[in-house]
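Example 9 (inverse folding). The structure is encoded as follows.
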């Protein structure tokens, strides 16, 4: 009986093989399901799956970069040149700021009196020399005044001659006791008066010649004409009468192109880095490869409260034609004891 029960519980070899086969089928099915889930969960690009590091993924990355750069797909993107200027490095620079190139002196030549322009021989951009005639004003009135003064001077000289004769005659007559001392005194007074009138006439003539000389306007320095502010036939005056239709108050504007500065509004936080006679390097923004020596020539005694800045002027040594007034320039301030490159 017990033997029969044991035989009934024993698993046949054929059944044992069938159960193992089913188990393998289950394992394979579970693996396939897992792979399918992983495939569905893997990130895709444009509806397709790409494995990291695969050629297809690299191709997609290149295609994306090419699309962003506006290049056709499949082309190799080349590096793009950057259109920017790298500022020159200056040894010992403690501060770099920008300012504007200006003329140290801009002279606007005005007439000394109300007059009419007869001739103007200067144009914008002309180079002029010290003493060169630039403008001629109408001088007819002052020529007439000079002639009038010359006539008065001639009359006084004649009066002096007569007074001298009268005084000499009175002295002889008083010696002969023909005239009294009063006659001699009167003759002497008339002579002194004639001499005083002559000095007055000479001063009047000198004044007339001075005004006549002022009708010829000359250049006060060697430089270039920045502006022509009047024309022939125009009325000019040393003062403005007010309004926009009054006479011009200037004829030409002149400056020396060899006397240039850089004008800077320096932030108050950087003021401690700047001092008078400090060596500088100046580079115009239009020509960044050009460099000029300079030095701090002026530090304003008063700051701008609204801007929080202080004006500093840097004198440029040996400027040339590349430096144009009113253009911007970069200034490097060199530390004390350092040599800029």
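The amino acid assigned to each position is listed next.
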């Amino acid at each position: 009986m017990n033997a029969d029960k044991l035989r009934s519980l024993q698993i046949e070899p054929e059944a044992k093989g069938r159960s193992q086969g089913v188990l393998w089928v289950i394992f394979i099915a579970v693996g396939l399901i897992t792979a399918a889930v992983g495939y569905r969960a893997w990130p895709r690009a444009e509806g397709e799956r790409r494995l990291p590091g695969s050629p297809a993924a690299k191709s997609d990355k290149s295609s994306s970069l090419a699309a962003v750069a506006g290049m056709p797909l499949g082309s190799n993107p080349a590096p793009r040149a950057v259109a920017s200027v790298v500022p020159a490095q200056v040894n010992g620079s403690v501060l770099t700021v920008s300012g504007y190139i200006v003329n140290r002196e801009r002279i606007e030549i005005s007439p000394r009196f109300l007059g009419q322009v007869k001739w103007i021989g200067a144009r914008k951009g002309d180079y002029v020399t010290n003493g060169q005639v630039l403008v001629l004003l109408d001088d007819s009135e002052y020529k007439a005044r000079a002639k009038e003064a010359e006539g008065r001077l001639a009359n006084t000289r004649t009066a002096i001659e007569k007074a001298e004769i009268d005084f000499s005659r009175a002295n002889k007559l008083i010696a002969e006791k023909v005239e009294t001392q009063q006659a001699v005194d009167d003759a002497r007074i008339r002579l002194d008066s004639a001499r005083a009138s002559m000095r007055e006439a000479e001063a009047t003539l000198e004044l007339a010649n001075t005004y006549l000389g002022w009708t010829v306007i000359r250049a006060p320095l060697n430089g270039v004409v920045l502006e022509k502010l009047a024309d022939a036939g125009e009325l000019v005056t040393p003062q403005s009468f007010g309004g926009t239709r009054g006479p011009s108050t200037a004829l030409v504007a002149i400056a020396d192109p060899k006397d240039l500065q850089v004008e800077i509004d320096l932030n108050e936080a950087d003021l401690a880095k700047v001092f008078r006679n400090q060596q500088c390097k100046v580079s115009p923004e239009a020509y960044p490869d050009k460099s000029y020596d300079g030095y701090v020539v002026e530090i304003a005694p008063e700051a701008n409260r609204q801007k929080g800045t202080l004006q500093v002027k840097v004198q440029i040594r040996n400027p040339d034609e590349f430096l144009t007034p009113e253009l911007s320039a970069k200034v490097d301030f060199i530390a004390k004891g350092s040599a800029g490159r």
